[in-house]
Please model this.
Amino acid sequence: MLTIGLYLLGQKGLNVLENLYIKYSNEILFVVVGKDENVQSDYSKEIIEFCNNNRLKYYKRDEINLPFTTIQFAIGWKWLIPDSQNLIVLHDSLLPKYRGYNPLVTALLNGDEEVGVTAIKANKEYDRGNIVGQIKLKINYPIKIKYVIDEISDLYTELVLTITSKYIESDIKEVIQNESEASYSIWRDEDDFIIDWNNESTFIHRFINSVGYPYKGAKTKFENRFIRILDSEIMTDLNIVNRTPGKIFSIEDGLPIIICGQGLLKIISAVDEDSKQSILFKKLRMKFI
Model:
């Protein structure tokens, strides 16, 4: 008999739960809810609310006495799961590429033309389990990470429903990962969200889009405080003979145009890191660091 356990975090976790419930409401025995303080919204409240509204049993991440299930799925999960028996882990990359942390951010920063989601059987080696499903998504730049997550969330649901159906039919096929193609994406902290104005404007623009909502956003120091850059626009470069990255070149309708290592970038939207209030740019002789 099919029974399902879920370890869920984020928008992808909520999306899978909502859609899996439609077809397998009676088979879902438990949901473990993860929380992540490093994003603006981890969807934990929404997942708990859905469980309460539909009388699904949910647990906190540190609870260990969970019911046995014939198959388990980890969606957006960042932590070790002691009971990895019958566990399928879904990962935000086309494994074996980008094993590790924040692979979707890394793929977008690198300008990859394809991203995707891979389902693997859990084992003791990090993100090295046999592949049981994979779906690709083509990317056209510029693109914001929120839009990509929306698309990826639907792929998660599609993959979980497909694997569940194949499990019922005893038709899950495993593919060993090719170690020669493996690459890794390491963890990020607050320092990794700081803009380096020595980079090209095209990269900085992509950086802002890649670490935006639901992440906290790219940041820079301005007037002795950090601000978050939420949106930007690439401008035509000019021949600036004494180019100094980070300096404001001009202000158009209250929107500053910043000199980059190569190219110019207009700041469309920025907020104070602490107050979240919009920043008004009035002084020309200022520099972002």
About this structure: DSSP finds five helices and 14 strands in the chain. The domain at 190-272 is CATH 3.10.25.10 (Methionyl-tRNA Fmet Formyltransferase; Chain A, domain 2). The chain has a mean pLDDT of 95. The first strand starts at residue 4 and ends at 8.
